[in-house]
Amino acid sequence: SPRQGPAAAAERPDPSRLRPHVVLAQENTQIRDLQQENRELWVSLEEHQDALELIMSKYRKQMLQLLEGRKAEDAEPVLKVHQANSGEIESQIDRICEMGEVMRKAVQVDDEQFFKIQEKLAQLELENKELRELLSISKESFEVGREDLPD
Question: Known InterPro entries for this protein (predicted)?
Fold first, then answer.
């Protein structure tokens, strides 16, 4: 018949003790995936910013060439359109820069969270190791104590 009582219960691994390690491992994987995705998004954002800057500089150059080739009175309506367009494009660039800043902060928060979890995991592993050592010492002293007992 199976043994009952605290001795039998102590030998079975407590499932609630095993779970945090598994959960932390899953969170580590998710965090690494998110960090990779953040880095890729960041690179993509910078490429978009570079492309927009290039478009703006080409646009300005074309507008200057167009304005140089016309008389002052003919140029005024074109100049107004140019100002309106460049204002809109610059506001889009500003929005992209703001999004970039938000993403940069998100990456920073993710990194900090990742390090906190790693620290906690290391702490738990050390604690686990120390508890195992204590358990083995107490088992050894128990065995020695039993050997000393008369039969």
Answer: SIKE
